[in-house]
Write a structure and sequence with these properties.
Layout (H helix, E strand, L loop, with lengths): L5 H24 L2 E2 L5 E2 L3 H33 L5 H7 L2 E5 L5 E5 L4 H16 L10 H17 L11 H21 L1
Antiparallel strand pairs: 1-2, 3-4
Helix pairs in contact: 1-2, 2-4, 2-5, 2-6, 5-6
Length: 185
């Protein structure tokens, strides 16, 4: 059996984003336009999937950047702390009632995790990343995280509603994230 790779994961998740975007556009195109130019379309299923796909893609790529950066640091003899190594692979630890160490998945906020990945990359490569948190894509990304959280933990019917602005923000977040990554390759 052939070993599966992170590249396969990232490519499939990238394909998911593109497919979700295409399906969303098809649903909107099939909608009806009223006299005022407003479109009435059954698009929200596709919009929710697009939001989830964008965040899944960013999470996977972020993880990959962290692991790659730590590996590069270790191979190049660049000083990296144990905490950085463990957080890169998202492992935390705690003591149980018997005083024994138990590993567990760490709970890292996604926006902080992305910035951590960028910092690790800079450490590993010695190059400054062209990341500016005042760029529009970053605020769109943080808003898209909130939308994803709302979709994942809905309490009220309106929690699963997706606006055109939220769709646009998700695409700006994805495009901006991709641009930062393309600048570092």
């Amino acid at each position: 059996m052939e070993e599966r790779t992170t590249r396969e994961l990232i490519e499939k998740l990238g394909d998911d984003v593109e497919r979700c975007q295409e399906m969303l556009m098809e649903a909107i195109d099939e909608g009806e336009v009223d006299e005022a130019g407003n479109v009435s379309a059954d698009y929200e299923f596709h919009a929710r999937n697009l939001i989830r796909a964008v965040i899944a893609y960013i999470e996977a790529v972020t993880f990959s950047v962290k692991v790659h950066s730590v590996d590069k640091c270790m191979k190049a003899g660049i000083k990296i702390s144990d905490h950085e190594r463990y957080l890169a692979v998202e492992i935390d630890s705690a003591l149980n009632d018997k005083g024994e160490i138990r590993e567990r998945p760490s709970k890292i906020r996604l926006a902080s995790n992305v910035r951590f990945a960028f910092n690790l990359y800079e450490k590993a490569s010695g190059e400054k990343i062209k990341f500016d948190p005042s760029d529009e894509w970053w605020s769109c990304f943080k808003e898209t995280i909130r939308v994803r959280d709302r979709l994942t933990h809905p309490r009220l019917p309106e929690d699963i509603d997706i606006s055109g602005k939220e769709i646009a923000n998700a695409m700006k977040a994805w495009t901006g994230y991709e641009k930062v990554l393309l600048d570092i390759e």
